[in-house]
Amino acid sequence: MRAILLGSGTSGGVPRIGNDWGACDPANPRNRRSRVSMIVEHAGKRVLIDTSPDLRNQLLAQDIGALDAVIWTHDHADHSHGIDDLRALYHRSRKPLPGFGRGYSLQSLVSRFDYVFAGGDGYPSIVDLHDLADDQTICGMQVRCVDQPHGPVLSTGLRFDADGMSIVYATDFASVTDDMVALYSGCDVLVTDCLRYEKHPTHANLEMAMDLATRTGARHTVLTHMDKSLDYATLCAQLPNAIEPGFDGLTIDLEQVA
């Protein structure tokens, strides 16, 4: 099993429009961050997590032309508004892509993008929608989930297990709950929300991300959803060996971590 970080940035990306790099060194390509999404691969199957507005460029950069399923963590624009890019995958496979999400995500997505799921006016449905259960098998992997507090709404945290290895994807949370710790405990890789140094009302900051890593006993932790205040090289110098900042295109091989 392995994971590919397609995007590692916050909703505005890095740099922000106006060529605003903040504290990030523009000379370091690992500071150029598109909006968050990730792929989990196992036994030749690929599961996409979230349809970032930058999805087209992300898939082109990784030379990925086929997916086997997609899971949405929630309906915010930076996690869903690249949904139309799934149409190109339909044209290649000629069949709808299985799509999964919790009720609070799917209700909004179907309302905004009904044509994606129902088709119409001569266009086919490109996603076959399913409710995401607490525990189910997707593409040969055990996928378990937990609802995370994300300010006034919820996001879905995910744990993937296969062949004795596990990876957690926990982004867009504002506090660490006991249910999150219980599900994520003992994972090989934790990919976690880490917006900035300072506290934020709807996202984890660096302190909270490191607290989650400690409380779950994750073997290795990767930070994602980072804004312009978090310079890659600076973070590398500050963090312990078991925690690293993510970057667009980072590939995580779980066998090497385990």
From TrEMBL:
InterPro entries: Metallo-B-lactamas, RibonucZ/Hydroxyglut_hydro. Residues 34-225 form the Metallo-beta-lactamase domain. Transmembrane segments: none annotated. Coiled coil: none annotated. Pfam families: Lactamase_B_2 (PF12706). This is MBL fold metallo-hydrolase. It comes from Blastomonas fulva.
